[in-house]
Design goal:
Blueprint: H1 2-21, H2 40-56, H3 59-62, H4 69-85, H5 104-116, H6 126-149, H7 151-172, H8 175-197, H9 205-225, H10 233-241, H11 249-256
């Protein structure tokens, strides 16, 4: 049991880091400026999927249970973030060349769809799902700028939020989903450490969007399956949307850093 749990956390986080760091051209030590890898959202999605797969098995991909839609949500967030980030204009050099840009509207739409498709038992009404989806879409827009310019804070903030979510889920008995949240927490903490070590690395807005999607998805899961386990609804909402405090990162950074450097 302990070995399986470690695999679902450590192996999943390692897989996500490998995908995140594979295309190093965007943030290598050569050149100037802060860049983010185009695999940010894919890495988040892969971490969640690998963890759930190691815990649940192949039935996850068949969507045989309603909570398996967490897999579908991760896929939408991963692929949508890629589309919103990759420069698809170049024809000669390919879509992965050139500067990393992002399309805020595409990020918001991706977040909305990824969350709206989660129809958990007792919480499958359109009003509830639209409220969650709209909150996540707005959150993705809010986090777009701070996630790009404050990578250390972004990585560690998401790690804390996902770690808290993992703890709450574990306390209610949802070990499989708790392990997925823990894997993402470890993954995000690692990205914060990488940002600390590399002055050119930034996770990027797509990473923040996908991480927020998974955090909200875990919160929706908790509200649906553990509404009678003593955890107030406000706690699920608070933890799910807690990374939005990153909007204050520029203000805090300006007060503690007299120079105009970015999160360094």
């Amino acid at each position: 049991m302990i070995e399986t749990a470690l695999e679902a956390v450590v192996a999943a986080a390692a897989a996500g880091i490998l995908v995140l760091l594979a295309p190093r051209d965007g943030w290598s030590t050569e050149g100037k400026g802060v860049r983010f890898p185009w695999t940010g959202s894919l890495a988040v999605a892969l971490t969640a999927i690998v963890s759930l797969w190691l815990s649940e098995g192949a039935t996850l991909f068949a969507l045989s249970q309603r909570w398996h839609s967490l897999f579908a949500s991760a896929v939408v967030a991963g692929v949508g973030g890629l589309v919103a980030t990759v420069n698809i204009t170049p024809v000669v050099f390919g879509p992965f060349s050139g500067p990393r840009t992002f399309r805020p509207a595409a990020l918001a739409i991706t977040a909305f769809i990824a969350v709206a498709l989660l129809a958990f038992p007792g919480h499958d009404g359109s009003g509830f799902r639209i409220a969650c989806a709209a909150s996540t879409a707005v959150g993705a827009l809010i986090l777009a700028t701070p996630s790009q310019h404050y990578p250390r804070t972004t990585g560690f903030m998401f790690a804390v939020s996902l770690g808290a979510m993992a703890g709450i889920l574990a306390s209610t008995g949802s070990l499989k989903v708790a392990l997925a949240a823990a894997a993402l927490a470890l993954f995000c903490a690692t990205t914060g450490a990488i940002a600390w070590a590399s002055s050119r690395f930034s996770q990027g807005p797509a990473f923040a969007m996908a991480s927020l999607v998974m955090l909200v998805a875990f919160g929706m899961y908790g509200m649906a399956y553990h509404d009678e386990d003593g955890v107030p609804v406000i706690v699920w909402w608070f933890v799910s949307l807690s990374p939005l405090v990153l909007i204050a990162a520029p203000i805090v950074h300006a007060k503690i850093t007299p120079s105009p450097h970015v999160d360094r």
